[in-house]
């Protein structure tokens, strides 16, 4: 190989990549936030899947604190979801509105608190009406 001959002939040729052009009056890098400029957080769109079947409920009491539901939290409850074991339900039991976890024990349905001070509520032979399944919990910090 002759080392005096350049590998690429020294003739005019087009560049392999187009020249980057900028707009007049534009300087600096674009802000990364421009990618999200048109998107806004809409909690209804994010958390409410069935608007006609959804309601909100404010929590009182301490029976579900171990599961992250505290007094004054706002629950988003969906009536269209069929309750399954493990779901947190809002129900009317013996005339009282309760928020409990639905569990089956030895094949029997119960509504259970996360706080051991409250015993499980057996659902068999009780007056219970399920109002809906808790889809989300909104907790507001005191500031």
Describe the structure.
With 143 residues, the protein is mainly β. 3% of the residues lie in helices and 31% in strands. It contains 1 helix and 7 strands, in the order αβββββββ. The protein has a 7-stranded antiparallel sheet with strand order 1-2-7-3-4-5-6, with no helix packed on it. The chain is elongated. The relative contact order is 0.18.
How many alpha or pi helices? 1
Summarize model confidence as the mean pLDDT. Answer: 84
Strand content: 25-35%
Question: In one word, what is the shape?
Answer: elongated
Cα gyration radius (Å):
30 Å
Order of helices and strands: HEEEEEEE
Tell me the structural class: mainly beta
Q: How many beta-strand elements?
A: 7
How far do the termini sit from each other? Answer: 77 Å
Biggest sheet, spatial arrangement of strands: 1-2-7-3-4-5-6
Major β-sheet annotation: 7 strands, antiparallel
Which short descriptors sum up this protein?
3% helix, mainly beta, disordered N terminus, seven-stranded antiparallel β-sheet, 31% strand, 143 residues, 7 strands
Q: What is shown here, in short?
A:
By secondary structure, the protein is mainly beta.
Chart the SSEs and their pairings.
Layout: H1 43-47, E1 54-58, E2 74-78, E3 88-93, E4 96-105, E5 108-112, E6 121-122, E7 128-138
Antiparallel strand pairs: 1-2, 2-7, 3-4, 3-7, 4-5, 5-6
């Amino acid at each position: 190989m002759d080392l005096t001959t350049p590998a690429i002939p020294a003739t005019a040729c087009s560049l392999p990549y187009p020249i980057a052009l900028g707009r007049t009056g534009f300087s600096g890098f674009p802000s990364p936030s421009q990618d999200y400029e048109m998107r806004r957080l809409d909690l209804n769109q994010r958390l409410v899947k069935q608007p006609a079947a959804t309601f909100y409920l404010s929590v009182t009491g301490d029976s579900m604190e171990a599961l992250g539901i505290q007094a004054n939290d706002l629950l988003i409850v969906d009536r269209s979801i069929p309750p399954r074991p493990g779901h947190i339900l809002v129900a009317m039991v013996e005339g009282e509105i309760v928020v409990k976890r639905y569990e089956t024990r030895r094949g029997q349905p119960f509504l259970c608190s996360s706080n051991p001070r409250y015993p499980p509520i057996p659902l068999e032979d009780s007056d219970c009406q399920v109002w809906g399944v808790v889809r989300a919990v909104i907790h507001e910090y005191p500031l």
